[in-house]
Amino acid sequence: MNVKANKEKLKLAMANACMNTEDLAKVCEMPRPTLNNVIAGRGVRPKTLGRVAKVLNVPVEQILLKEV
């Protein structure tokens, strides 16, 4: 099962953490293409989104896209 990030909330969390894509990829220890998939709102593994949320110090629910 894949999950998607809410693009706007993710970008806001990145701005609050003063991190750009390159910084976040390094700290998350993940390839930039994988992080680009997260930021683009493409489906990723829950573990991947969880790692991003942990580094940004936000609950994963805050950046998780809730589809209706």
TrEMBL record:
<dbReference type="InterPro" id="IPR010982">
    <property type="entry name" value="Lambda_DNA-bd_dom_sf"/>
</dbReference>
<feature type="domain" description="HTH cro/C1-type">
    <location>
        <begin position="22"/>
        <end position="63"/>
    </location>
</feature>
<dbReference type="GO" id="GO:0003677">
    <property type="term" value="F:DNA binding"/>
</dbReference>
<dbReference type="InterPro" id="IPR001387">
    <property type="entry name" value="Cro/C1-type_HTH"/>
</dbReference>
<dbReference type="Pfam" id="PF01381">
    <property type="entry name" value="HTH_3"/>
</dbReference>
<protein>
    <submittedName>
        <fullName>Helix-turn-helix transcriptional regulator</fullName>
    </submittedName>
</protein>
